[in-house]
Specification:
Blueprint: H1 8-18, E1 25-29, H2 38-41, H3 43-48, E2 52-56, H4 60-76
Parallel strand pairs: 1-2
């Protein structure tokens, strides 16, 4: 439906994949900045296997505990890296 405005974040995601980096995005939009182009920014989280957390009408008092829990969970969850499987048949 919508295309990114430019390929900067796709190129950055490719570079992150080459370096085995996963990116999580935490985006909060409040009354002063009412819009953000998620279509342009989202590929970095999607291509690297990360998550996108979006907070509409962000307020620290309202969303503070939720963002703390999601950030804590993201930093402490078990992860696997450098997994490789080879099958050889003759």
């Amino acid at each position: 439906m919508m295309k990114p405005a430019h390929d900067f974040f796709k190129n950055l995601a490719s570079e992150c994949i080459d370096n085995r980096i996963c990116v999580d995005l935490y985006i909060g939009v409040n009354q002063t900045n009412l819009s953000i182009d998620l279509t342009t920014v989202a590929p970095i989280a999607g291509m690297t296997g990360g998550n996108l957390y979006f907070y509409q009408n962000f307020d620290v008092m309202k969303h503070g505990e939720k963002i703390y829990y999601e950030l804590f969970r993201s930093l402490t969850r078990p992860t696997v890296s450098e997994v490789e499987y080879k099958a050889r048949c003759s």
